[in-house]
Amino acid sequence: MSRPAPPPLTCLPLGERPRRRLPQLFIGLALYGFSLSLMVRASLGVNPWSVLYEGLEHRTSLSFGTISAALGVLVLLLWIPLKQRPTLGTVANIVVLAYSSDLGLALLPQHLGLPARAGLLVGGVLLNGLSVAVYVGARFGPGPRDGLMTGASTATGRSLRLIRTLVELTVLALGWLLGGTVGVGTVLYALAVGPLTQFFVPWFAYRSSAGQAAGGTASEGADSLAGPPRRPRPTARSEVGA
Fold first, then answer.
1. Distance, CA of 97 to CA of 92 (rounded, Å)
2. 8, 23, 89, 191 - which has most CB atoms within 10 Å?
3. How many whole angstroms separate alpha carbon 72 and alpha carbon 145?
4. 54: Cβ contacts below 8 Å, ≥ 6 apart
5. pLDDT by residue, tens only, the chain of 242 residues
């Protein structure tokens, strides 16, 4: 069975089927925060922003999640000159990631052997790619860091790839100088998360009612949280769920 084609991922109005989309948003963000804690406990290298969080955690009395939230708010302030507007997804990103990552770090044991740490790393990267597809697919708008990159790309006319690379290399270098963990996990994350997210997005991306009407039967399968495309029901209304 083939995967459904990916729909657009632009932000949709809050009022469009919130009972369908809100649980997906919060589940995806919670899984994302937990995936960060898996990679941190692996102690084999984390993603660039987590390297910075770790470095600041070593230098302050704040928790990993608290630092994540504080930097999220600071990054959000940079949206102002870029004329970006936060959405529910932006605020939820800050709050849910902070709590879920701290909860994961509280639950996961420390000082594990290398095989267990390697398992945590691989599991964390896989879960991270999946979780990004889940919360981005709910289409409630970007998180503060992604919004900064897209806004800077629009304002400068530079490619999003270039802006993202420059921002993440800067964040990575600063975090490493502060004592954050850079290692094989950092490289694995950089190479794997993009393809993983791209693979999972068609299964989780929500299709708007307008998109369903335009796309016909091919778009109906992507409206469910996951799974292969479904055959259309013989009714005038093609939406699935609440």
1. 8
2. 89
3. 7
4. 40, 46, 64, 175, 178, 179, 180, 181
5. 566 666 678 899 999 999 999 999 999 999 999 999 999 999 999 999 999 999 999 999 999 999 999 999 999 999 999 988 999 999 999 999 999 999 999 999 999 999 999 999 999 999 999 999 999 999 999 999 999 998 998 899 998 889 989 999 999 999 999 999 999 999 999 999 999 998 999 999 998 876 555 554 433 333 333 333 444 444 443 333 33
Distance between CA 178 and CA 56 in Å, rounded?
7
- Of 94, 135, 159, 121, nearest to 35 (Cα)? 121
Tokens of 154: 């629009």
Q: Collapse the DSSP code of 11 into the 3-class scheme (helix H, G, I; strand E, B; otherwise coil) and give the result.
A: coil
- Give the integer Cα–Cα distance in Å for 241 and 146: 29
DSSP classification of residue 231: P
**3-class secondary-structure state, position 107:** helix
105 alpha-carbon distance from chain centroid: 18
What gap in Å lies between CA 220 and CA 208, rounded to an integer? 10
Instruction: Give the chain's length.
Output: 242
User: Helix (H, G, I), strand (E, B), or coil: what is residue 60?
Assistant: coil
Judged by DSSP in three states, 239 sits in coil
